[in-house]
Amino acid sequence: MALGVAALPFTFVVHALGIFLLVLVLVWTIDFRGGFAWEATNKSLIFNIHPLLMLIGLIVIGGEAIISYKSLPFTKEVRKLIHLVLHAIALILGIVGIIAAFKYHNESGIANLYSFHSWLGIGIIALYAIQWIYAFLLFFYPGGPVGLRTDCLPWHVVLGFLIYLMAIGNAAIGFLEKLTFLENSGLAKYGSEAFLVNFTALITILFGAFVVFSVLSQAPVEEDQGYSPI
Amino acid sequence: MALGVAALPFTFVVHALGIFLLVLVLVWTIDFRGGFAWEATNKSLIFNIHPLLMLIGLIVIGGEAIISYKSLPFTKEVRKLIHLVLHAIALILGIVGIIAAFKYHNESGIANLYSFHSWLGIGIIALYAIQWIYAFLLFFYPGGPVGLRTDCLPWHVVLGFLIYLMAIGNAAIGFLEKLTFLENSGLAKYGSEAFLVNFTALITILFGAFVVFSVLSQAPVEEDQGYSPI
To answer: pTM for this structure?
Structure first.
């Protein structure tokens, strides 16, 4: 299923869309929603940490982690290190972001874990962590036998992809869920904030698509750039 | 990114999950939501057509269309015909399902096209139609030059995949959106209907994952089963 075009232009689009996403979520959470706080009487400020960290963590840094292994002009060992460190940062931000959502719920008297967004989110973060730990042990330290690495590598790639695409989908679900709550509380359905949130969700999906294009197209240097288990 | 295991067991899981999805959506729309009607004073019966046709069409038949080209034990021409006919059925059911949503909105005085689910849905059905028409002309009738077919085939596969995964994601978004509306109107957040709808969304994503596994693993007969542009 590899695409016969160079990966590099796609990776530039990923970086640009990632910065754009960061701007969009900051405009939304700060300008429209009043900013952030870990402790506050206005509990909405605690919630705002959630979309910020999930988007920067799992989506943007997670996406950069995926393409880094393929596209950076370093040795395999260095790329592997960057790949696993970026995924670790994504995972930690994701966990803190989820804690912020629970904290907001608990302090506002809102029920936990009733929505599909929360179910899927818990599943994704658990799979993300399992995938990270398993790959660390197998491919980095202490490292498994070569045969096992060779057998597991395509699964690592495919399952990692599915987890990432579920994260993209769940981010879009989260934007829609929050917007629906706000619209039920009187926010204009065709207003500027509704447009901004929907647009951010759309750019999130586009970001995910370009991560996919980057990984499925051709690495800059042919040798030492393919997926190899060692 | 191919998986070194046989596709056949995965395709059986796809069929089983597809039947399960059909049962789940029928139980929800009939037992919990009162069934279907194209003309009715109870406008909810018009809405119910929407999740039914989208799920059977774009998701289940669309998924079967994707795996049919890879896994059925027929000649390439026959598989291609099955592939394009199933996708045509999926597309038609999807279009009728979207019309049902507009009809429900219009007759109930609900605004159209304000939610991310609707934006994404319009985008997906348009891309699905473009992908079908372009592929029909290029790969089936009248058929493009061999060089163009060879160049376009990986894009057909990758873009088709992305469109399908967006459809899976948007189905999950749709379930969540409808459930949020119902919960805002008093439906119990931890009740049996909420559980059923969330569970259906979860099985939808699992169905999509097994379609991906089926396509990325090994076809039953090696010769004449790979992706070839002719």
So the answer is: 0.90
